[in-house]
Amino acid sequence: MAQVANPYKKAIDSTWSKCSDDIDTVSDGLESAVRVFESGAWIGGLADQAHDLLLYLRGELKGVAMDADDAFSTAYDSQPPSVEEDAWQIHWRNLGPK
Fold first, then answer.
1. What is the mean pLDDT of residues 39-61?
2. In this predicted structure, what is the pLDDT of residue 95?
3. Number of Cβ within a 10 Å radius of residue 8
4. What single DSSP character describes residue 45?
5. In this structure, are residues 6 and 83 in contact, taking their beta carbons and an 8 Å threshold?
6. Which end of the chain is more exposed for a tag (fewer CB within 10 A), N or C?
7. Reported confidence tier of residue 74, pLDDT bands at 50, 70, 90
8. Where are the domains of the chain?
């Protein structure tokens, strides 16, 4: 049987790229907010609590991003570049519960 490009590997790569873009967008927003707080834009009241929350979220996002990157990398690296025409990777979207 003929070998064809692995569409599952391509889907992993595409989703990985989209997730990376989304993580970058959120990360950039958090970094901007932290810089605003650290420049003294909001002082008093709940400013310290809000700043602490932003720092916490920034740290959590970095951890989640690293975990996601590792998971995508492992999944991508585990797939061959090409598969047989009747391999499960060809019909992977149809393999879920019915």
1. 91
2. 73
3. 19
4. T
5. yes
6. C
7. very high
8. 3-86
SS3 82: strand
CA atoms within 13 A on the CB side of 88: 3
| Residue of 95, 38, 90, 34 whose CA lies nearest to 62 | 34
Measured distance CA(81)–CA(8) in Å, rounded: 9
Average the pLDDT over 70-95 and give the result. Answer: 93
Alpha-carbon separation of residue 46 from 33, 34, 38, 39, 98 (angstroms): 15, 14, 14, 16, 50
Rg of the Cα trace of the chain?
A: 21
Nearest to 92 by CA among 9, 1, 17: 9
